Structures are given as C-alpha cells and as structure tokens.
Fold Fe2OG dioxygenase domain-containing protein.
Amino acid sequence: MGVNAKIEFPVIEFRPSDLKRGTDGWHRLCKRVREACETFGCFEAVYEKISAKVREETFELMKELIAVPVERKQKNISPLPYHGWVGPCNQVSLLYEGFGLEDASNYDSVKSFTQLMWPDGHPRFCNTLHTMTTQIEELNKLIWLMIIDSYGLGEKWESVMINYKSLVRFMKYMAPPPGEYEKGLFAHTDKPVSTIICDDQVSGLEIDVNGQWIKLSLSPSSFCFVVGDPLKQNTLTLASSSKPLLLSHHQFLIENMPILSSKIPVLA
C-alpha cells in the first residue's frame, strides 16, 4: 500500500491460520485491529478470501449500472439520505454519482434492485453482486468479533450483532478538468455502524490523521474498514473503562481519472 506521508497507516493481513477464534494468532490479530481502530478509526484489511475475479466482475458490472438511462436510475429512491440514487449536484458534488441498495445480503433485495435497473433482468449482475456483498459481510462480522473479543466482551457479541442490515453504495467519481484536483465527496465520518470501502485501483480515498491527509492506494486484495459512530458508542457503553475507538474523517480527491467505488455500510 502506498501513502503520500511518513505516517505508517495500518495494513492488517487476515491469514486463514489466524482466523480460528481463541488461538494465539486470533488474539494477536484482535489486538492489531483494536489498536488500528483506536488510533486511526480505520485500517486496510488484506483479505484474499474474496477473489480477484469476483471483485473485477463487480466493477465491470458497475460500469453497466452507470450507463443505465437516468429515468431508470431515478427509480432507485429511499426516504433516507444516500440510500437511493444521487446524481451530480451542488449539494453533494458535481463529480459524484451514487446508487443505494438496502438489505444487500438478501438475494430478493438484490433481484428487486436489478429489475428496477434492467426490467428484462440481468442475472450476472444479480448473482455477482450478491456473492460480493455476502463475502464482504463475512469480513465485516469477523472484524466486529475481533473488536468485541479484544475488549473481552465475547459473551455480549449477540447483543451487538442483532438486527443489522447492509447497505451497498455504488459510487462513481468523475474526473475533473485536466490538471485540476477536486473533491469527489466532502470530508466526513460515517453514520452507520461500520463501513467497508472497495475501489477499482484508482487512488482517491484520503484519511485525515492528526490534521494531515494521507492518500490510500488499496491493493487488489484489500479493503478499507471504517469505524462508524454507533460502533464507537457500542464499545464505549460495553467497555467504558477502555480507550474509545476513533471516528475517521475521509474524503475522495480526484485527479485525471474517474473512480469507481463500492461502499458497504452496516446499519444498526
């Protein structure tokens, strides 16, 4: 991973040998995850269980989604902010376009979204997206469990995990005029419990570390895990004597190339 600063951003490899709960490798991994979340509010997770093929297919299919006529995109609506389609606008960004898919690990939800965008159906989009989302949810659950175990709160795991759903946001950040840098999305923290970001290998994601913005270049097998406000509050409530998790300010800064990104927040 490359960054444009001397700050050593945490990169944590999730090796299969360390993912058996209760082992020494598991406890070492839990400690690293917790420290990263307390210090940065996010980290790069190297997780090769999600195949490069599925990831590549997802981004190829996102290009087809972006090309859908506007009148179909406008059917992707929700009463909640950013849970439906948002086109380029002054309120968000003239470079930004995003779609929202709620309850994304539910195959019927994915199928309904697919039929909105392609009335004649698109089985490859539906199946690929469901596979990708389900596997990313597994990674998210794993990270949650590591955070809970690191605080010694394993018995309260079910109370934290119950009644959550994933929202997938498909996002495109369009390229600004040549030679210019522009924010594709303003600096913000995430309101869902947690978020996992996956991009198409065009660097644009930046993280605020002590007032200094550092650029992340995720590897083909990496994802960025981001602590959301509810997760911070949960750990404060359940482990009040411990150091709190940090909320990560992040943004997308765009130059020359458009960026495709999938952002998968987990809602309480």
